[in-house]
């Protein structure tokens, strides 16, 4: 099962300058946001970013609110940035302002996966080297505390010129952080030129279902860009436990079969390893008969006490009665038991884990978490196919260097100076000699 995360970034430039916008007041904003609200609602986007919206501290969120969306905004003289989130609760990250770019960041969780979403705007008047340094430092701290990242922004760096020094610097920065830029079409056009300056940045390993550029929309001077991400539901791998089942164990039958084992066969074997194998085989066959192995896939739940298991049985019985009787009272009784046992399990689990964390050292703690199937699995990556054949690797290095020219004079020089007499050897010493050496050592203290 997968949840679709649709993220839209819109670089929205009004057709008015900042002075004209301030003179027009909120009326112009309301009209433009009405157009924006209609398009965004029809597109059913779950996250949308806006840039250069010219909001001031005196303008409330009500003037730019969207039904079903919650806004996170950061106002500024250069235009300001905002982020609309729909269908997900989020936390706005309180990050320091930067003179080189504008930004706003939120953190959401989708299918238990942490996403950090940010909207970034770099005004064209700012220094690119200073921006690279500030932006890289910010990303370096953000990527350490998130599983996925989505960065939407106008960077005013034209990637249609890939050999430009600033484009190369930007690409190099992304590569060093393990980030990719997924928009490949122009996002801003004039009568004489076009440029790709609006980006969507993701982790290099993030799978993308679709991304596109929406042209010919009257909402913005820049084209709208969006990305669709499939967010898989993390599946907890079953923790298989293998144990011997003593439920039907009978001590008398076990003792009789133990006495019936032909132990004398062991004495007829000459090899010690064969004797040990025979002994182990007799014992294992005996236990397999009386206490066979059983495999359980459910993880351990040591917090389920006998009282809780008893209430669980009452809940299951109440569920059967509610299905059979189909009365209001039976259903209410089942719901009461359901709510009670859910809260009780949560309390017992919290108390057990707190006790374990408080009274375990590091090694015991990780062992307990692994038994409870809480810690991450340690699946080791397989060797890539192109590196799996050692013969191919050897042939590559053998053929990588051209045939070197042999210097015969140099070869004769070294071969003529080979000595067969050892230059280092251990010799026996007497105790008096060792004592004399130790006594001759002078102390500086």
From TrEMBL:
Signal sequence bounds: 1-19
GO molecular function: catalytic activity
Keyword Transferase: no
Transmembrane intervals: none
Keyword annotations of the record: Signal
Record bears the keyword Transferase: no
Protein name: Endonuclease/exonuclease/phosphatase domain-containing protein
Source organism of the structure: Popillia japonica
């Amino acid at each position: 099962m997968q949840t679709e995360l649709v993220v839209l970034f819109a670089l929205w430039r009004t057709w008015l300058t900042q002075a004209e916008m301030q003179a027009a007041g909120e009326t112009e904003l309301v009209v433009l946001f009405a157009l924006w609200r209609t398009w965004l609602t029809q597109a059913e986007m779950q996250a949308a970013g806006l840039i250069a919206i010219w909001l001031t501290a005196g303008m409330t969120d009500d003037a730019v609110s969207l039904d079903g969306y919650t806004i996170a905004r950061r106002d500024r003289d250069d235009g300001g940035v905002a982020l609309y989130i729909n269908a997900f609760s989020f936390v706005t990250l309180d990050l320091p302002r930067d003179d080189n770019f504008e930004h706003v960041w939120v953190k959401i969780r989708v299918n238990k996966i942490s996403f950090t979403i940010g909207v970034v705007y770099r005004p064209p008047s700012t220094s690119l080297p200073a921006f690279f340094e500030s932006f890289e430092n910010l990303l370096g701290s953000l990527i350490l505390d998130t599983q996925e990242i989505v960065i939407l922004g106008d960077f005013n760096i034209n990637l249609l010129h890939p050999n430009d020094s600033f484009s190369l610097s930007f690409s190099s920065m992304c590569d060093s952080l393990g980030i990719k830029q997924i928009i490949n079409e122009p996002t801003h056009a004039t009568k004489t030129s076009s440029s790709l300056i609006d980006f969507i940045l993701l982790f290099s390993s993030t799978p993308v279902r679709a991304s596109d550029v929406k042209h010919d929309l009257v909402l913005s001077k820049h084209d709208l860009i969006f990305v669709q991400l499939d967010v898989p539901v993390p599946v907890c791998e079953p923790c298989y436990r293998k144990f011997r089942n003593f439920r039907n164990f009978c001590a008398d039958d076990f003792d009789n079969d133990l006495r019936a084992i032909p132990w004398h066969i062991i004495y007829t074997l000459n090899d010690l390893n064969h004797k040990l194998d025979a002994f182990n085989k007799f014992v294992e066959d005996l236990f397999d008969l009386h206490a066979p192995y059983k495999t359980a896939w459910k993880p351990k739940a040591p917090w389920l006490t006998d009282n809780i298991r008893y209430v669980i049985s009452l809940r299951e019985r109440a569920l059967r009665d509610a299905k059979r009787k189909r009365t209001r009272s039976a259903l209410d009784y089942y719901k009461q038991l359901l709510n009670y046992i859910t809260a009780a399990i949560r309390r017992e689990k919290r108390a057990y884990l707190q006790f374990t964390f408080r009274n375990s050292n590091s090694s015991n703690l990780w062992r307990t978490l692994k038994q409870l199937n809480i810690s991450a699995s340690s699946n080791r990556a397989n060797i890539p196919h192109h590196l799996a054949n050692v013969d191919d690797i050897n042939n590559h290095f053998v053929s990588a260097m051209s045939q070197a020219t042999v210097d015969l004079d140099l070869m004769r020089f070294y071969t003529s100076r080979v000595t067969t007499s050892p230059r280092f050897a251990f010799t026996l010493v007497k105790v008096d000699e060792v004592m004399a050496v130790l006594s001759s050592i002078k102390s500086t203290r």
